[in-house]
Predict the 3D structure of the following.
Amino acid sequence: MRFYLQKVLFYVVALWFAVTLNFLIPRLMPGNPVDVLISKMGAAGQPVTPATRKALEIQLGTGGGGNWFGQYGQYLNDLIHGNLGVSLVNYPATVTHVIGQALPWTIALIGLSTVIAFLLGVGLGMFAGWRRGSWLDNLIPATTVLQAVPYFWLALILVLFLTRWHQWFPYAGGYDVASTMPGVSLRFVGSAIYYGFLPACTIVISSIGGWMLGMRNMMVATLSEDYVVAAEAKGLRPRRVRLTYAARNAVLPSLSGFAISLGFVVAGSIVTEQVFSYPGVGQLLWTSVSNNDYALMQGIFLVISLSVLAANLIVDLLYALIDPRTRARA
C-alpha cells in the first residue's frame, strides 16, 4: 500500500508542476492575444473601448490587472470549475468545445496507429529474438532505417505515390465532406477509415522498427537468464518458455515506452496532421501557437499533461503487479 501511495503522491505533485508550467509558458511567448483580437476588430470597423479590452482580457484569461499572480489564481479557480476559457482563433467558441471536436479524430488516428505499431513491433521482435539469424531478424535493420526517416518526408512520399500518381487514397481531410455527415453510421466510419489510412500508415511504418529492435534485444538478453535455461532444461514446451518465461520479462521495458507513447497520443502528430490536413489536436495546437491563443494552448497542454501522467501512473501500477520486485525496492 505504501508503494501505491508514494506513486499517487508523486503524480499529484507532477500534475501541479505541469499545471504551473502550463500557465507560464504561453505567457512567456511574445505577443498578446488581446492585442491581436482588438486589431482584428479594428480592421473590421468594430468599435473598441477600454471596457471592450477589459472584457476580452477576462474572456481570454489575461486579466488580473496585469499581475501574473492574480492571473494564476484566476486560472486555478477556472480550472477547478472546468472553465478553460474562450479560444481566440475560434472566438467566441470555448476551448472545451474546440478541443472536444478535434480530440476524437486524434485518439482514433494516433491511438489506433500507436497500438497497432506496438503490438506488431513487440510481436515481431519477440519472434526475431527467439529465432536469431532468421530472415525476420535480418529484416530489423531495414525497419530501423524507416524510423530515422522524418515523418513529413515519409508522409509526402506516400502522398506522391498513392494519391497523385495512382490516386488510390485522398490526400487531405478526415472524411468525405461532400457526401458524408459526421455521426454514428457505417458510411461515415468507412469514410473516416478511408481518409485516415495514409496518415495511419505513416505512423505505423515510422515507429514499428523501434518496437521491434527493443523487443528483439530484450528477448536475446532474457533468453540467457538462468530461469529461462532452467525452464528449457525441465523440458517445457518451447511455446511456454517463449511466452511465459522470456517474453513476459522482456516486454517490461517496452511497456514503459508504450505508456509514454500512449500518453502523447492526445498531442497527436503535428507534422503528419499538417501534411494530410487532418482535423486533429496536432493541427489545432499548431494553429493556437501561430496565433498566440493562450487559452487554447493552455487547454491543449493541459489535456496532453493529464493524458501523459495518467498513462504513466496506470503503467507504473500495472508494472508493480507484473513484476513484484519493483514494489520490494520501493
About this structure: The radius of gyration is 24 Å. Residues 91 and 210 are 41 Å apart (CA to CA).
